[in-house]
Amino acid sequence: MREIRNAARVKFCAISENEAFARVVTAGFLMKMNVTAEELADLKTMVSEAVTNAIVHGYRGRDGAKCIVTLELKYYSDGLLQVTVADRGCGIPDVEAAMTPFFTTDKEGERSGMGLPIMQAFSDSLRIATSPRGTRVVMKKKLS
Amino acid sequence: MKHHMEEEKGVLTVHITGDVDHHSAAQLRQSIDARLTESDTVHTLRLALGETDFMDSSGLGLILGRLRLARERGVRLVLAQPTPAIRKILRLAGVEKDIETEGEAV
Q1: What is the reported pTM?
Q2: What share of chain A is helix, strand, coil (3-state, %, to 5)?
Q3: Does B21 sit within 8 Å of A20, measured CB to CB?
Q4: CATH label of the domain that carries residue A66
C-alpha cells in the first residue's frame, strides 16, 4: 500500500524571482533522497515550467506581489514523487493547444511554447485542471 | 545568473553562469541583442554554457530567438559546452540538429 513518506507545501508571490525559489525548494526536498543528477534536473525543470506558466499566463496583467502560487511536493513509499503547482489565475483557455509544441500566446515575450510539452516529457504523468478561477497542474514521477 | 561578453576576431562569446529562466532571460536577451545589433564586426555569436547550471524553456526561447536574429544578420550561432540537461531540452524541441555545438560540459 502506498503511504506518504514526506510532504511539503509552500505558497509564494507570483513574481519571477520566485521561479528560482521554487527550484531551490524542490532541490532541498529531494536532498536526502538518492535521486540521479538527471532526475533532479528534470524535476527542477518541471517545477520551473509550471511556476513560470502560473506567473506569466495565469496571472497575466495582474500585480504578482498580490497573487499566490502554491507548490506542493509529496513523496510516497513506492518512490513516487507528486508535484502540484496551483494558481488562482485566469485558467488555460485551450489546454490541447497549449500542449502543442511551440504553441504560445506570448510571442512578444519570446516564449518558446515548449513549457507544457517539456513538463509532459519529463514526468510520468501530467494532469491539468483549469477553469477561469485557476489552474492546478499535477505531475508524477517515479524516482529510481 | 551572471554573464559577460568578450569579442575576439569577430567571435562574440557570451559566458553565462547560473540559471537561465524566465526571470533572467529578458536581461540576457537585451544585452546580447544590443551588442549584436551595434556591431558590424561580429561574424559568430558563441554562447558559452559550460557554467550554466539550469535552463528551461525560457532559455530555449532565448537560444531560438538569437538563432533567428543571428541568421537575419548573417551571423553564425554556436553553443559551447552545453550541459546534458540543455542538450536534452534541445533534443526534445527537435532543434538539436539545427544548432551548431562545440564540446561538452564536464
Answers
A1: 0.94
A2: 35, 30, 35
A3: yes
A4: 3.30.565.10
